[in-house]
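Let us work through a complete example step by step.
Step 1: write down the sequence.
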Amino acid sequence: MTPAQHAAAVAAEAARFHATVSAADLATPVPTCPGWTLADLTQHVGSVHRWFSELLRRRVQQPPAAREVDLRLPEHPGGLPDWLAAGAAEAAEVFAATDLDAPMWAWGVDQHARFWVRRMLFETLVHRVDAQLALGLSPHVDRALALDGIDEFLTNLPFATPFAPLTAQLRAPDRTIRFSCTDRDGDGDGLGGRGGGWLVRLRPDGFALEADRAGARTADATVRGTAADLLLLLYGRRERHSDAFDRHGDMDLLDHWFAHSAF
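Step 2: predict the structure and record it as C-alpha cells.
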C-alpha cells in the first residue's frame, strides 16, 4: 500500500470506529484491553490521532522530549465519539499538507513522515476491532489491509523495546518462525516478494524479519491462517490455539514468541 492509501484508510477506519461507538454504552468493558471501557478506548485512539498529527506538523527530527499536546477533550464522555471524528478530520488535513516521503524521526525502521500515517492506520484498525468485539460484533478486516498490517507489525517490532520491553527477550540460537497466509493469491501481494508469508529469525542478539521468497526456507515453527486472522493473532486479538490456525513445528518456540511479542 502507498502512503496515500494509508491516509485514506485511516479516515475509513476512523469512520468505522465512530460508527461502532457512537450509539454504544461507553461504559462497556473492552475484554481485549483489560481494565478499559469503550470510553477509555475512544479517548486513547483520539489521543493517538492528535499526537501523531502534532509530530507530523512539527516534522520532528529527533525523539520528542515530551508528549504534551492539547487534546481538547469533551466535557462529558458522551462527546468522545464526535471528538474522535474531529481529530481524524484534523489528521486528514495534516496528511494532505505534508510531504509523506519527507525524512522524519520515527521509532521504527522507516525514517519518513509516512511511518506515522501507517502506524496511525493500524492503531485505529486494531482498536476498531476491540470496540466491535466488546459489543459482540464480528469484525471484518480487509485482506489488503491485513497483509500490510502484518508486514508493518513484524518490520517494526524489533524496534519496540522502549515501550514493549518484553520484546528484548525474543532471543534464540538461530531459530525461525514463519507466518503464512492461507488466502494468498500468488501475486506476491506487494510485500517485497514475501507472497503472503513472513519469516522471523531469532538470534542470540535479537530478531528480525527476513526475506523468504515463496516460503523457500524451512522454518522451525509455522503458523498458518487467513491474513485477517494472522494480523489479529499478532496483536493478541485471536487465540493461537483456535481452529482458525494451523500450527506446526516447535510449540515451545511459538509459546516464547507470543509470551514476549505483545505490542
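Step 3: interpret the result. The beta strands are 175-181, 197-203, 206-210, 221-225, 246-249.
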